[in-house]
Protein backbone atom coordinates (compact mmCIF):
# COMPACT_ATOMS: atom_id res chain seq x y z
CA UNK A 1 0.00 0.00 0.00
CA UNK A 2 1.36 3.38 -0.92
CA UNK A 3 0.83 5.73 1.99
CA UNK A 4 -1.14 5.60 5.15
CA UNK A 5 -0.19 9.19 6.07
CA UNK A 6 -2.94 10.19 8.39
CA UNK A 7 -3.53 6.70 9.75
CA UNK A 8 0.09 6.54 10.82
CA UNK A 9 -0.14 9.77 12.74
CA UNK A 10 -3.26 8.40 14.45
CA UNK A 11 -5.71 10.82 12.86
CA UNK A 12 -8.65 9.74 10.77
CA UNK A 13 -9.69 11.58 7.63
CA UNK A 14 -13.40 12.39 7.47
CA UNK A 15 -13.78 9.50 5.03
CA UNK A 16 -12.05 6.96 7.32
CA UNK A 17 -13.93 8.36 10.33
CA UNK A 18 -17.35 7.71 8.80
CA UNK A 19 -16.37 4.31 7.40
CA UNK A 20 -15.03 3.16 10.76
CA UNK A 21 -18.13 4.51 12.47
CA UNK A 22 -20.34 2.52 10.07
CA UNK A 23 -18.36 -0.61 10.82
CA UNK A 24 -18.99 -0.60 14.55
CA UNK A 25 -21.56 -3.13 13.31
CA UNK A 26 -20.67 -5.67 10.59
CA UNK A 27 -21.79 -4.49 7.15
CA UNK A 28 -21.36 -5.35 3.48
CA UNK A 29 -18.71 -3.09 2.02
CA UNK A 30 -20.88 -1.76 -0.77
CA UNK A 31 -23.66 -0.85 1.68
CA UNK A 32 -21.42 1.34 3.87
CA UNK A 33 -21.95 4.29 1.56
CA UNK A 34 -25.73 4.06 1.88
CA UNK A 35 -25.41 3.83 5.67
CA UNK A 36 -23.29 6.98 5.83
CA UNK A 37 -25.70 8.92 3.65
CA UNK A 38 -28.62 7.90 5.87
CA UNK A 39 -26.69 8.69 9.04
CA UNK A 40 -25.70 12.18 7.88
CA UNK A 41 -28.94 12.88 6.05
CA UNK A 42 -27.04 13.13 2.78
CA UNK A 43 -24.64 15.67 4.27
CA UNK A 44 -21.57 13.52 3.78
CA UNK A 45 -21.08 11.15 0.91
CA UNK A 46 -18.08 9.18 -0.29
CA UNK A 47 -17.29 8.46 -3.93
CA UNK A 48 -16.94 4.76 -4.81
CA UNK A 49 -13.24 4.92 -5.69
CA UNK A 50 -12.46 6.77 -2.44
CA UNK A 51 -14.54 4.21 -0.57
CA UNK A 52 -12.73 1.24 -2.09
CA UNK A 53 -9.27 2.75 -1.55
CA UNK A 54 -10.03 3.72 2.05
CA UNK A 55 -11.40 0.28 2.90
CA UNK A 56 -8.20 -1.32 1.57
CA UNK A 57 -6.15 1.09 3.68
CA UNK A 58 -8.16 0.44 6.83
CA UNK A 59 -7.76 -3.31 6.23
CA UNK A 60 -4.00 -3.09 5.78
CA UNK A 61 -3.73 -0.94 8.93
CA UNK A 62 -5.81 -3.62 10.73
CA UNK A 63 -8.41 -1.10 11.81
CA UNK A 64 -11.13 -3.19 10.18
CA UNK A 65 -11.25 -6.86 9.26
CA UNK A 66 -13.32 -9.15 7.12
CA UNK A 67 -16.28 -10.63 8.95
CA UNK A 68 -17.34 -14.13 7.89
CA UNK A 69 -16.05 -15.57 4.64
CA UNK A 70 -18.18 -13.80 2.01
CA UNK A 71 -16.50 -13.32 -1.36
CA UNK A 72 -16.56 -10.43 -3.81
CA UNK A 73 -19.69 -8.37 -3.47
CA UNK A 74 -20.75 -10.31 -0.34
CA UNK A 75 -17.64 -9.29 1.61
CA UNK A 76 -18.56 -8.02 5.06
CA UNK A 77 -16.36 -5.91 7.31
CA UNK A 78 -16.27 -4.98 10.98
CA UNK A 79 -14.06 -2.64 13.03
CA UNK A 80 -11.27 -4.31 15.05
CA UNK A 81 -10.47 -3.41 18.68
CA UNK A 82 -7.58 -1.36 17.35
CA UNK A 83 -10.01 0.41 15.02
CA UNK A 84 -12.50 1.11 17.80
CA UNK A 85 -9.74 2.56 20.00
CA UNK A 86 -8.56 4.84 17.24
CA UNK A 87 -12.16 5.90 16.55
CA UNK A 88 -12.64 6.83 20.22
CA UNK A 89 -9.38 8.76 20.21
CA UNK A 90 -10.43 10.61 17.07
CA UNK A 91 -13.85 11.42 18.51
CA UNK A 92 -12.06 13.06 21.48
CA UNK A 93 -9.81 15.00 19.12
CA UNK A 94 -12.82 16.24 17.19
CA UNK A 95 -14.67 17.13 20.43
CA UNK A 96 -11.66 19.18 21.47
CA UNK A 97 -11.73 21.05 18.18
CA UNK A 98 -15.40 21.92 18.63
CA UNK A 99 -14.74 22.89 22.25
CA UNK A 100 -11.96 25.27 21.20
CA UNK A 101 -14.06 26.76 18.45
CA UNK A 102 -16.97 27.38 20.81
CA UNK A 103 -14.66 28.91 23.40
CA UNK A 104 -13.32 31.42 20.90
CA UNK A 105 -16.70 32.23 19.40
CA UNK A 106 -18.39 32.60 22.81
CA UNK A 107 -15.68 35.00 23.99
CA UNK A 108 -16.18 37.04 20.87
CA UNK A 109 -19.95 36.95 21.49
CA UNK A 110 -19.43 38.18 25.09
CA UNK A 111 -17.30 41.07 23.94
CA UNK A 112 -19.85 42.11 21.36
CA UNK A 113 -22.80 41.59 23.72
CA UNK B 1 -23.75 -0.42 -36.42
CA UNK B 2 -21.89 2.87 -36.93
CA UNK B 3 -18.62 3.30 -35.04
CA UNK B 4 -16.29 6.20 -34.54
CA UNK B 5 -12.69 6.31 -33.36
CA UNK B 6 -11.49 9.20 -31.21
CA UNK B 7 -7.89 9.71 -30.28
CA UNK B 8 -6.87 10.04 -26.63
CA UNK B 9 -4.52 12.70 -25.34
CA UNK B 10 -3.05 10.07 -23.06
CA UNK B 11 -4.75 9.66 -19.71
CA UNK B 12 -1.70 10.81 -17.77
CA UNK B 13 -1.88 14.23 -19.43
CA UNK B 14 -5.42 14.73 -20.61
CA UNK B 15 -7.68 12.70 -18.34
CA UNK B 16 -10.21 15.50 -17.76
CA UNK B 17 -10.20 16.62 -21.39
CA UNK B 18 -10.62 13.04 -22.60
CA UNK B 19 -13.54 12.50 -20.23
CA UNK B 20 -15.11 15.81 -21.27
CA UNK B 21 -14.77 14.73 -24.89
CA UNK B 22 -16.59 11.46 -24.12
CA UNK B 23 -19.35 13.51 -22.43
CA UNK B 24 -19.78 15.77 -25.44
CA UNK B 25 -19.84 12.82 -27.87
CA UNK B 26 -22.47 11.07 -25.71
CA UNK B 27 -24.64 14.18 -26.08
CA UNK B 28 -24.53 13.58 -29.84
CA UNK B 29 -25.38 9.90 -29.37
CA UNK B 30 -21.83 8.56 -29.71
CA UNK B 31 -21.28 6.43 -26.62
CA UNK B 32 -18.03 4.84 -25.48
CA UNK B 33 -17.80 1.15 -26.36
CA UNK B 34 -14.21 0.22 -25.63
CA UNK B 35 -10.58 1.24 -25.63
CA UNK B 36 -8.80 1.23 -29.01
CA UNK B 37 -5.08 1.75 -29.66
CA UNK B 38 -4.25 5.32 -28.51
CA UNK B 39 -7.91 6.20 -28.19
CA UNK B 40 -11.50 5.10 -27.78
CA UNK B 41 -14.07 3.42 -29.96
CA UNK B 42 -17.58 4.92 -29.79
CA UNK B 43 -20.78 3.48 -31.13
CA UNK B 44 -23.87 5.30 -32.34
CA UNK B 45 -26.78 5.04 -29.94
CA UNK B 46 -29.25 7.39 -28.32
CA UNK B 47 -28.35 10.81 -27.00
CA UNK B 48 -27.25 10.64 -23.37
CA UNK B 49 -26.13 13.13 -20.75
CA UNK B 50 -23.29 11.35 -19.01
CA UNK B 51 -20.23 12.06 -16.91
CA UNK B 52 -17.20 9.84 -17.40
CA UNK B 53 -14.47 8.89 -14.95
CA UNK B 54 -11.39 6.71 -15.08
CA UNK B 55 -9.85 4.63 -12.31
CA UNK B 56 -6.94 2.21 -12.06
CA UNK B 57 -7.10 -1.14 -10.30
CA UNK B 58 -4.94 -4.10 -11.17
CA UNK B 59 -7.09 -6.84 -9.75
CA UNK B 60 -10.67 -5.64 -9.74
CA UNK B 61 -13.24 -8.06 -8.32
CA UNK B 62 -17.05 -7.87 -8.07
CA UNK B 63 -16.64 -5.98 -4.83
CA UNK B 64 -14.80 -3.16 -6.60
CA UNK B 65 -17.48 -2.85 -9.29
CA UNK B 66 -20.28 -3.15 -6.69
CA UNK B 67 -19.15 0.10 -5.03
CA UNK B 68 -19.41 1.95 -8.33
CA UNK B 69 -22.75 0.40 -9.21
CA UNK B 70 -24.16 1.29 -5.80
CA UNK B 71 -23.05 4.90 -6.30
CA UNK B 72 -24.71 5.18 -9.72
CA UNK B 73 -21.59 4.64 -11.86
CA UNK B 74 -21.88 2.11 -14.70
CA UNK B 75 -18.77 0.23 -15.81
CA UNK B 76 -18.28 1.00 -19.52
CA UNK B 77 -15.05 -0.75 -20.43
CA UNK B 78 -11.60 -1.69 -19.19
CA UNK B 79 -8.19 -1.64 -20.79
CA UNK B 80 -5.86 -4.56 -20.05
CA UNK B 81 -8.02 -5.29 -16.99
CA UNK B 82 -6.33 -2.35 -15.29
CA UNK B 83 -7.78 0.95 -16.54
CA UNK B 84 -11.51 1.18 -15.96
CA UNK B 85 -13.92 3.75 -17.38
CA UNK B 86 -17.25 4.44 -15.72
CA UNK B 87 -20.18 6.65 -16.64
CA UNK B 88 -23.04 8.12 -14.67
CA UNK B 89 -25.90 10.55 -15.22
CA UNK B 90 -24.49 14.08 -15.09
CA UNK B 91 -24.43 15.44 -11.54
CA UNK B 92 -23.59 12.15 -9.81
CA UNK B 93 -21.09 12.39 -6.94
CA UNK B 94 -17.51 12.06 -8.35
CA UNK B 95 -15.75 8.71 -7.88
CA UNK B 96 -13.06 10.35 -5.72
CA UNK B 97 -14.44 12.52 -2.95
CA UNK B 98 -11.39 13.39 -0.88
CA UNK B 99 -7.88 14.65 -1.32
CA UNK B 100 -6.08 11.75 0.27
CA UNK B 101 -7.48 9.01 -1.96
CA UNK B 102 -7.19 11.19 -5.09
CA UNK B 103 -3.50 11.68 -4.33
CA UNK B 104 -3.13 7.95 -3.86
CA UNK B 105 -4.63 7.25 -7.30
CA UNK B 106 -1.89 9.28 -8.97
CA UNK B 107 0.86 8.27 -6.54
CA UNK B 108 0.39 4.62 -7.53
CA UNK B 109 0.47 5.50 -11.25
CA UNK B 110 3.53 7.67 -10.80
CA UNK B 111 5.28 4.82 -9.03
CA UNK B 112 4.29 2.22 -11.62
CA UNK B 113 5.41 4.29 -14.60
CA UNK B 114 8.55 5.40 -12.77
CA UNK B 115 9.50 1.77 -12.12
CA UNK B 116 9.60 1.20 -15.89
CA UNK B 117 10.97 4.60 -16.89
CA UNK B 118 14.08 4.63 -14.74
CA UNK B 119 15.47 1.18 -15.64
CA UNK B 120 14.70 1.73 -19.32
CA UNK B 121 16.52 5.06 -19.23
CA UNK B 122 19.55 3.45 -17.63
CA UNK B 123 19.46 0.58 -20.14
CA UNK B 124 19.24 3.03 -23.05
CA UNK B 125 22.25 4.99 -21.85
CA UNK B 126 24.31 1.85 -21.18
CA UNK B 127 23.43 0.30 -24.55
CA UNK B 128 24.40 3.46 -26.43
CA UNK B 129 27.64 3.79 -24.49
CA UNK B 130 28.57 0.12 -25.05
CA UNK B 131 27.62 0.36 -28.73
CA UNK B 132 30.05 3.23 -29.19
CA UNK B 133 32.96 1.66 -27.32
CA UNK B 134 36.06 1.06 -29.34
CA UNK B 135 36.78 -2.53 -30.07
CA UNK B 136 33.12 -3.52 -30.36
CA UNK B 137 32.65 -5.55 -33.55
CA UNK B 138 30.39 -4.22 -36.30
CA UNK B 139 27.59 -6.70 -35.69
CA UNK B 140 27.71 -6.26 -31.92
CA UNK B 141 27.56 -2.50 -32.38
CA UNK B 142 24.42 -2.82 -34.51
CA UNK B 143 22.75 -5.06 -31.92
CA UNK B 144 23.61 -2.72 -29.04
CA UNK B 145 22.47 0.44 -30.81
CA UNK B 146 19.19 -1.08 -32.00
CA UNK B 147 18.51 -2.47 -28.54
CA UNK B 148 19.19 1.03 -27.27
CA UNK B 149 16.50 2.40 -29.60
CA UNK B 150 14.07 -0.25 -28.35
CA UNK B 151 14.62 0.62 -24.69
CA UNK B 152 14.41 4.30 -25.60
CA UNK B 153 10.89 3.72 -26.94
CA UNK B 154 9.97 2.00 -23.68
CA UNK B 155 11.46 4.97 -21.83
CA UNK B 156 9.42 7.50 -23.82
CA UNK B 157 6.15 5.64 -23.25
CA UNK B 158 6.74 5.29 -19.52
CA UNK B 159 8.66 8.52 -18.90
CA UNK B 160 6.03 10.77 -20.45
CA UNK B 161 3.16 9.41 -18.35
CA UNK B 162 5.46 9.56 -15.33
CA UNK B 163 5.94 13.28 -15.89
CA UNK B 164 2.18 13.62 -16.48
CA UNK B 165 1.32 11.98 -13.17
CA UNK B 166 3.88 14.06 -11.31
CA UNK B 167 2.32 17.19 -12.72
CA UNK B 168 -1.15 15.89 -11.85
CA UNK B 169 -0.08 15.21 -8.27
CA UNK B 170 1.29 18.69 -7.80
CA UNK B 171 -1.99 20.10 -9.13
CA UNK B 172 -4.09 17.99 -6.75
CA UNK B 173 -1.82 18.90 -3.81
CA UNK B 174 -2.22 22.61 -4.51
CA UNK B 175 -5.79 22.74 -5.64
CA UNK B 176 -7.92 20.27 -3.75
CA UNK B 177 -10.96 21.78 -2.09
CA UNK B 178 -9.95 25.35 -2.80
From TrEMBL, chain A:
* Stored Gene3D superfamilies: Winged helix-like DNA-binding domain superfamily/Winged helix DNA-binding domain
Transcription regulator PadR N-terminal domain residues are 25-88
A Pfam family annotated for this chain is: PadR
InterPro entries in the record: Metal_resp_DNA-bind_regulator, Tscrpt_reg_PadR_N, WH-like_DNA-bd_sf, WH_DNA-bd_sf
Q: What PANTHER family does UniProt report for this protein, alphabetically?
A: PADR-FAMILY TRANSCRIPTIONAL REGULATOR (PTHR33169:SF13)
Protein name, entry field: PadR family transcriptional regulator
In its UniProt entry, the species of origin is given as Halobacillus locisalis
From TrEMBL, chain B:
Q: Which residues cross the membrane?
A: 115-137, 143-165
Q: Which InterPro entries match?
A: DUF2812
State the protein's name: DUF2812 domain-containing protein
For this UniProt record, give its keywords in alphabetical order, as a comma-separated list: Membrane, Transmembrane, Transmembrane helix
The answer to whether keyword Membrane applies is: yes
Keyword Transmembrane helix assigned to the entry: answer is yes
The highest taxon in the source lineage is Bacteria
Amino acid sequence: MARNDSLETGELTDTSFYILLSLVEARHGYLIMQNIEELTDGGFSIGPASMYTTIKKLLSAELIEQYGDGKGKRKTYIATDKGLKLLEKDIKRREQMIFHAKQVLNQKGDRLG
Amino acid sequence: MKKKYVVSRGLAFGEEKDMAKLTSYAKQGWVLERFAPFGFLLKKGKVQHLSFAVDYNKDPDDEYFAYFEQAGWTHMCSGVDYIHVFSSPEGTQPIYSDRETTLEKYEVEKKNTGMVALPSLIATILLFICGNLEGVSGLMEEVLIWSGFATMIVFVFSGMPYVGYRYKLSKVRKGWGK
